[in-house]
């Protein structure tokens, strides 16, 4: 403990100016979301102002409030700490003048450390925060992610030092008993995985942190890496002690450059302070690690694909067994967990299994991070207890925007499913309730759809993504995804074949024989769509009509009013499809690409109509609706 | 392989990477960072340095969507293909980019002035639908705003 106490004393001194600032301290969230809203310019502007106005400025991570970025927290020696949103550089000067002395009401989101003041609510009273239990995200937005001192001053690496004094089997049994399972969407017992590695006989043993968060619409791991990188390293150190691993790789997707930067810096800081290396903090644990930057391949999120990628190869998943715990990186025993799982393990061990089990459900204790996007009023990242229902979460983020209906939930990326709002809404967020519905909960991404979205169009996108990202090794996955894409494309054109539903099911069945989840779970969204959105499928397939007027080949654009705005519409049209003939504006359908730019500038004069309105549906296709859902008979034997 | 100035430069660039150590991606990233893309000759140098076959290096380079085999354009427009963008009109954005520039995803305009890149969701979905102009997020974009943006980029390219 002596080495830890030394580090802690230095860290406490560095943390003091943040915990108890002598003059106002502006904490600017710098993360991928806030940067995309201009937070770097805000940071620069505030730094320049701070010199003349007498306040300090520091960066912090991600509070999860993506919708309100750039977010700034202001801590004052003589008043409450206040969380502010939408502090763009242009507003920084006016904002700073108010926020340094009192409350800048136009930007105020909440009082962080006290009761409601001057009409600004206390943070715990806001729906967004009320629903949350921020254990894993405890440091997110609270510390400078580039400062190891901040992390240590808030009990960082103490859990590791404590764990390293425990018996290894006992430590693993605490993790197993906590019900902690892989937060990536696999939900395999973390303690059991660690035990597999501990029991492996070959040496050396390795750890991999899966930070290849490829599910579109999910960014929980990015929030953690950008806000609290040391928490992930501490989780890996604990796993290293428990399992006997001596080296680790943190495989981060290429789309997360800031996470790469912050994790790399965190590793360097750990080396400097003797937390990584031969004798971690005097515990006798020998462990080193490095960051590997991915290069854009969804299938590397599969653990064997990821291992292939580290092993100087294309990231192609392979058949299991051998499991990674037998043969992983460089053919040595390897344990793969994702970012949030390592972070959750460190969190669980810090607060203790008893406290950890006070929230969540019987089968899934503790908390889980979710990112919310799509048609919701607010977009961002929250941490809620397992078992919180989808509807509760949706209400806390302000519901569907503009009061529209909750049509569907696309949860957990393209392999986990698409459920109608009426079915998904009451579901508790934990993996089990999703399974009987032929779906999964996934790793944390929740994309909400309102009634303006077309589920057939979403299937076209999903099928394209799955086909594009298939590694190509298994014919079942590569070939079936190509066929599925063709089928969805023709459905979206209103040209579905009579046998398509049976063909889709046949493809789905053969895909079960793929090596990895990419293949076997590819049919999930497709099956959910057929089961729950049959009306919308039939509208496309039988009536050649897209009820939401999204699918481009089932709609036409018409000039319905010879208004002056049509001239602007003609100007904006990227293909010059709006032409004037005999003094009358009209849309040249052959040129029109259905991009809606004209509708944006002339909403009343341009109308979007069904392309095949009034035409009788073709009898051949009509039979598709009544054709039984069976595996088709091969017309030509192979 | 004949040594020349180009191969020696690449050799020097990746001198600290070792065979059998999981260094392939890192070596390729360093080359792309330096040149903006992966020149053909670089794949040979990497193969020799890491004692892999050239086919294996080429296979890896073409497996990953972020490695480029052609020089980057002066202005790279990344189009986000994610679901939040899609349900907010992202496909309209793609159609406009392709129609205005007369190129498909992954291609450059004449003289490498502008290029389109099919990008994956990075979770900045509050800006959906969005594009990244040389890495900077622009969004949310209506269809009309997309047309104006791309015309402006064309004028300045």
Topology:
The complex is a heterodimer of chains A (638) and B (157).
Chain A: H1 2-19, E1 25-29, H2 32-36, H3 39-53, E2 56-60, E3 72-76, E4 79-84, H4 92-99, E5 108-111, H5 127-130, H6 148-153, H7 158-163, H8 168-177, H9 190-199, E6 206-211, H10 220-227, H11 229-243, E7 247-252, H12 257-272, E8 288-293, H13 303-310, E9 334-338, H14 339-351, H15 353-356, E10 367-374, E11 380-385, H16 390-396, E12 406-411, E13 418-420, H17 421-424, H18 431-434, E14 445-450, H19 455-469, H20 475-492, H21 500-511, H22 517-520, H23 524-532, H24 534-541, E15 555-559, H25 565-572, E16 578-581, E17 584-587, H26 597-601, E18 606-610, H27 619-626
Parallel strand pairs in A: 1-2, 6-7, 6-9, 7-8, 10-14
Antiparallel strand pairs in A: 1-3, 3-4, 4-5, 10-11, 12-13, 12-14, 15-18, 16-17
Helix pairs in contact in A: 3-4, 8-9, 10-11, 11-14, 19-20, 20-21, 21-23
Chain B: H1 5-13, H2 24-35, H3 40-50, H4 54-63, E1 75-80, H5 83-87, H6 90-101, E2 114-119, E3 131-133, E4 136-138, H7 143-156
Helix pairs in contact in B: 1-3, 2-3, 3-4, 6-7
């Amino acid at each position: 403990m002596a080495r830890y106490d030394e580090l802690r004393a230095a860290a406490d001194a560095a943390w003091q100016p943040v915990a108890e600032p002598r003059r106002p301290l502006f904490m600017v969230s710098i993360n991928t979301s806030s940067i995309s809203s201009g937070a770097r310019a805000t940071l620069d502007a505030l730094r320049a102002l701070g010199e003349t106005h007498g306040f300090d400025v520091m960066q912090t991570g991600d509070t999860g409030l993506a919708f309100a970025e750039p977010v700034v927290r202001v801590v004052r020696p003589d008043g409450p700490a206040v969380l502010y949103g939408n502090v763009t550089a242009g507003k920084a000067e006016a904002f700073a003048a108010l926020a340094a002395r009192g409350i800048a009401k136009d930007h105020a989101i909440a009082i962080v450390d006290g009761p409601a003041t001057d009409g600004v609510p206390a943070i715990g009273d806001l729906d967004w925060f009320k629903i949350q239990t921020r254990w894993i995200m405890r440091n997110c937005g609270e510390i400078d992610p580039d400062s190891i001192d901040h992390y240590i001053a808030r009990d960082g690496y103490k859990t590791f030092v404590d764990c390293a004094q425990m018996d290894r089997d006992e430590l693993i049994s605490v993790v197993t008993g906590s019900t902690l399972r892989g937060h990536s969407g696999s939900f395999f017992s973390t303690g059991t995985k660690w035990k597999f590695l501990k029991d492996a006989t070959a040496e050396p043993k390795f750890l991999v942190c899966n930070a290849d968060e490829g599910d579109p619409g999910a960014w929980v791991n990015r929030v953690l890496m950008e806000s609290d990188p040391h928490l992930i390293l501490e989780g890996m150190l604990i796993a290293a002690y428990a399992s006997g691993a001596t080296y680790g790789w943190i495989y981060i997707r290429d789309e997360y450059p800031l996470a790469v930067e912050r994790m790399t810096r965190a590793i360097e800081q750990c080396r400097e302070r003797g937390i990584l290396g031969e004798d971690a903090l005097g515990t006798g644990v020998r462990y080193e690690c490095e960051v590997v930057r991915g290069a854009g391949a969804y299938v590397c999120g599969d653990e064997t694909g990821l291992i292939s990628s580290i092993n100087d190869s294309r990231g192609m998943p392979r058949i299991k067994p051998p499991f990674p715990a037998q043969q992983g990186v460089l053919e040595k025993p390897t344990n793969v967990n994702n970012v949030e799982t390592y972070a959750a393990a460190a969190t669980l061990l810090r607060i203790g299994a008893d406290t950890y089990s006070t929230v969540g459900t019987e089968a899934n204790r503790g908390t889980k991070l979710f990112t919310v996007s799509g048609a919701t009023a607010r977009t961002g990242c929250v941490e809620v207890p397992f078992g919180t229902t989808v509807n509760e979460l949706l209400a806390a983020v302000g519901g569907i925007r503009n009061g529209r209906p909750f049509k569907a939930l696309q949860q957990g990326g393209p392999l986990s499913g698409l459920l109608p709002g009426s079915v998904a809404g009451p579901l508790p967020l934990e993996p089990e309730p999703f399974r009987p519905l032929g779906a999964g909960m996934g790793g944390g991404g929740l994309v909400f759809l309102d009634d303006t979205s077309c589920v057939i169009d979403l299937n076209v996108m999903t099928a394209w993504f799955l086909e594009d990202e298939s590694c190509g090794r298994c014919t079942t996955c590569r070939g079936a995804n190509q066929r599925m894409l063709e089928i969805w494309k023709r459905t979206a054109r209103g040209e579905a074949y009579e046998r398509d539903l049976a063909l889709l099911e046949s493809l789905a069945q053969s895909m079960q024989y793929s090596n990895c989840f990419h293949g076997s779970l590819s049919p999930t969204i497709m099956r959910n769509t057929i089961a729950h959105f049959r009306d919308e499928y039939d509208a496309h397939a039988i009536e050649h009509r897209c009820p939401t007027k999204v699918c481009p080949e089932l709609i036409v654009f018409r000039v319905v009013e010879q208004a002056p705005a049509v001239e602007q519409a003609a100007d904006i049209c990227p293909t010059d499809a709006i032409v004037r003939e005999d003094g009358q504006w009209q849309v040249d359908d052959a040129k029109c690409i259905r991009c809606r730019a004209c509708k944006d500038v002339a909403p009343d004069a341009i109308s979007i109509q069904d392309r095949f309105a009034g035409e009788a549906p073709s009898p051949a296709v009509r039979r598709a609706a009544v054709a039984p859902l069976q595996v088709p008979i091969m017309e030509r034997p192979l | 392989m004949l040594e020349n100035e180009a191969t020696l430069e690449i050799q020097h660039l990746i001198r600290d990477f070792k065979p059998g150590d999981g260094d392939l991606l890192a070596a390729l990233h360093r080359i792309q960072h330096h040149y903006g893309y992966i020149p053909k000759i670089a794949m040979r140098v990497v193969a020799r340095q890491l004692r892999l076959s050239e086919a294996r290096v080429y296979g890896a380079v073409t497996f990953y969507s972020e490695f480029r085999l052609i020089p980057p354009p002066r202005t790279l427009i990344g189009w986000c293909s994610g679901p939040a963008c899609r349900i907010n009109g992202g496909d309209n954005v793609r159609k406009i980019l392709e129609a205005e520039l007369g190129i498909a995803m992954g291609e450059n305009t004449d003289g490498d002035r502008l290029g389109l890149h099919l990008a994956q969701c990075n979770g900045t979905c509050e800006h959906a639908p969005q594009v990244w102009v040389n890495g900077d997020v622009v969004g949310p974009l209506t269809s009309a705003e997309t047309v104006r943006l791309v015309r402006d980029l064309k004028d300045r390219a």
